[in-house]
Amino acid sequence: MTSLWLDDQRERIPSDTFEPGAHYDVVVAGAGITGLTTALLLARAGLSVAVFESRFVGAVSTGNTTAKLSLLQGGVLSGILSRGSSHVLKAYVEGNREGQAWMLRYLDEHGVAVQRRDAYTYAGTADGMKKLDAEYEACRKAGLDVERVHTLDLPFETHGGLRLADQAQFDPMDVLAALAADLRERGAVIVEGARVKDVETGEPSRVTTSLGEVWAGTVVLATGIPILDRGLYFAKVKPMRSYAQAYRVPGARLPQGMYLSIDSPGRSLRTAPVGGSADSPIGDEELLLVGGNGHVVGREDDTQRLVDDLEQWTQQNFPGAVRTHAWSAQDYQSMNLVPFVGWMPRTGKHVALATGYNKWGMTNGVAAALSMTADILDGNISWAKTLHHRITLPKDVANSVVANAQVAGELASGWAGSLHPLPDEPPAEGEGVVGAEDKEPAAVSTVDGVTCRLSAVCTHLGGIVSWNSAERSWDCPLHGSRFAADGTLLEGPAVEDLKPIDEPELPGDEHVPVEDLP
Fold first, then answer.
1. Cα–Cα distance list, 154 to 56, 207, 325 (Å)
2. Using a CB cutoff of 8 Å and minimum separation of 24, what contacts does 8-13 make?
3. SS3 for 170?
4. Secondary structure of residue 360 in the 3-state scheme
5. How many CA atoms, within 13 angstroms, populate the side-chain half-sphere of residue 263?
6. pLDDT tens for each residue of 242-282
7. What is the CA radius of gyration of the chain?
8. For the stretch 420-438, what's the b/e string if a residue is b when 16 or more beta carbons lie within 10 angstroms of its beta carbon?
9. pLDDT tens digits for range 363-395
10. What is the rounded CA–CA span in Å between residue 495 and residue 458?
11. Tell me: the pLDDT tens digits for 152-172?
């Protein structure tokens, strides 16, 4: 499963060489939209900056987003208002507005292609109209000039919607390429394959990576969810996974807005120009992007069913659509739907973090970069100050208790379910199973003809992983760490791979010296 954006662009952004023992003013962990924007803002201020990325630039959230730069965000604003105050709501929208404006200016200055589109939130059912009404009121209270619409340019029934004019969409890898080039011109380094594993805070702080140690005055964790457990942010956000597919629809007139349903199952629609060149960067063809079917990571029994459901829905509403790409993305949702951004507790203002974008990272990621940069450079942004000091309400506490009770339930049921013996035969191609081996939880899968035997215990906090049939990965239902079939860590708060299990020695398999053979 490879996204449209990553399909042919992995090699566009080169990696610098890791220098063990190097000293930097700032080390940024994570080379997505948040990490590179923060790094650039700090490099502009004259600081020496290194960006360390565990895989490759854009590998996780940014390279798998639907890349909508929009202030109209489904039911998010009414959700924030119901959990807090209009003061917090307005600060959230102001931060997103500033993030959007900064990004649009930057892309215009650097010649990155942007498509301006109207954004729509629509009700797919009659019951969804109540949610739409609440979102309309929240948008108006936040100062967004939304309007009600009764008909939409969609080939299926809707029950009305909201429209916010002149929002934007783009190819996120084009954005990362521009930011990376700008960074390097300012003397910063970007090192791929360097996973930040630990930070020992001090003057300076020691940063441990998979390639060695370096030193930093400040560390920025732009890793989706913090890889340090100080502050317990893994318990304050919910890991969510959703799916996206790109289609070529011959002869069809594609809807030109950016659409998002406010009711379930979620559906996201936009177009994407492809086939561009230096002479025609906009592209000579448009693909349809369809997304949705979100769920908590590791808690869906059959993820392939969700992918197939998107395919069936698309074929029903866009007959003749030919799928070109299928992928998924992960993001984190805070209990009150407002991101956590700022200094990590108990680090002496040496470690900053950003998490909880709730699938709206294109605006929230830039807003977080602006906020963290102001913190590091002793600046002052009024909306950021409001969000830093928002009050935790009883409803947030109740939601947190429920969420963590569910995590505890997953922990208990996962261990209980791993006590049954493993099947005698290895799993079929593309399948994985969890069971007991020598009284320990084991995860066994077969992918591309290779059977791998791993410990089923997540290396973060000991949850039992479950098999993701759509992506052929092991996913932890506790806090969203994900691992490839061979145990390689993909994303989440974990910093270590799943441990391999040695193949058991079967009777009759004892080693016999060649000279003793008859």
1. 37, 51, 22
2. 9/58, 9/173, 9/177, 10/56, 12/173, 12/177, 13/56, 13/57, 13/58, 13/176, 13/177, 13/180, 13/190
3. coil
4. coil
5. 16
6. 999 999 999 888 999 999 999 999 999 999 998 754 444 44
7. 24
8. eebeeebbeeeebbbbebe
9. 999 999 999 999 999 999 999 999 987 555 555
10. 10
11. 999 999 999 999 999 999 999
Q: How far is the C-alpha of 429 from the C-alpha of 451, rounded, in Å?
A: 9
- Closest by CA to 485, choosing from 518, 454, 517, 463, is 454
Q: How much is the average pLDDT of 12-24?
A: 95
**Dihedral over alpha carbons 173, 175, 177, 179 (to 10 degrees):** -150
pTM, 2 dp? 0.91
Contact 233, 39 (CB under 8 A): no
Give the chain's mean pLDDT. 91
Task: Give 436's contacts (C-beta < 8 A, 6+ positions apart).
Answer: 418, 419, 420, 421, 422, 442
Token pair in block for residue 503: 């193949």
Beta bridge partners of 267: 292
Rounded CA gap, 346 and 197, in Å? 17
Residue type, 109: E
d(CA 413, CA 411): 6
**Phi and psi dihedrals of 150, rounded to 5?**
-105, -25
- According to DSSP, the residues that pair with 331 across neighbouring strands are 240
Q: Which residues pair with 268 in a beta bridge?
A: 260, 291
